[in-house]
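Working notes for the structural subgroup meeting. M.R. asked for a predicted model of this chain before we commit to crystallization trials. I am recording the input and output together here so anyone reviewing the notebook later can reproduce the run.

Input as submitted:
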Amino acid sequence: MNPALADLLRSRAGIWRGLHCDHAAWAVVGSGFAELDASLPGGGWPLGSLAEIAIPAPGCGELRLLLPAIAGLSRAGRRIAWIAPPYRPYAPALLQAGVALGQLLAVNADKDHDIAWCAEKLLRSGGCGMVLLWPRRLDARQIRRLQLAAETGSALAVLFTLPGQSYSGAALRVAVRPSASGLAVDIVKARGSLRRASLMLSL
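Returned structure, recorded in C-alpha cell form:
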C-alpha cells in the first residue's frame, strides 16, 4: 500500500479497514455492563455516532440500558437531551441512578421534522454528550445529517425505533426486548465489526 495512503488511513479512526480496525482510537463511553462493553467495538457506546435501539414498545427497559452512560456523561458536565420522549423522565429514578439532573434537557416536539432539526442542532453544539430521540419516521437525508452532527459534536445520538422501522445509516444497531431474567440485547450491526452478538443483561 502507498505509504501516504496508509498514513491517512491510520490518522482517521472513523475509516473502517475491515477486520484491522483500530478500536482503541475510538472515543466511547462505558455502558456500565461489562458484557456489553466487551461486545461493542471500542469497548462502549461510540461517541460521534448514531445508534439505533430497536424496541418492541416504549418502556420495555431500553432506558435502563443507557442509564449508566447517561449518569457518567451528566456527571462529567455534558448535557443529556431527551427529544419527544413517550413518557416524562422520572427524576427520582434518574437521581437514584446517579444522573446529574441539572444536565438534563427535555424537548417537546410533535413533528418528525422538528425532532430531527432539534436533535441536529443539539448534537452539533458540542455541549451534549447524548441526545435521545423518539421520531415516528425519518428519511435517509435526516439520518445522514444526524450522523454528521454527532461526529461534529463528539456526541452519541440514540434513535429509538419500533417494529417496522429500521435505519441502515446508523453506525450501531441494537435490538432489545424484556425477559424474565432481565433485558435481551442483540447487537445487529456495529461499525468496525462483522460479528453479531446476543446478550442477556440483568438490570
